[in-house]
Amino acid sequence: MTQQDDQLLAVMARRNWIILIVLVLLSLFWQSPPVTYGVLAGGMLVIINYRWLGRSLLKVINDPQLHSAKGFKRNYFFRLIFIASAIYLLLVRGGVHPLALIVGLSVVVLNLMITTLKRLY
Questions:
Q1: What is the pLDDT of residues 101-111, one digit of tens each?
Q2: What sign has the CA pseudo-torsion 83, 118, 15, 51?
Q3: pTM reported for the whole predicted model
């Protein structure tokens, strides 16, 4: 990876947190703890998932012999189970608002859209 790519990833990681903070602050206007907790939990979950995916990909790209595609697929499966279980627990036991959770889960998507628009224009 080039220096520019490393900088882009660092900027995107920082922007994920900024977007999450802005969304959590906006959720405070509803004055409902389930809404705020849903946005916060969804954002944290998707940022953890994004970082986990990034590390897995870097391992495979940097040393393909040591970290095989099978290992990446296994890691992907465990990550999927972890995320699905966390979402299930948040909705069933956590008492978060489902739409707020979806808004929180959209942090990385919003970041990718912003990054794409910035690079295009």
A1: 999 999 999 99
A2: positive
A3: 0.89
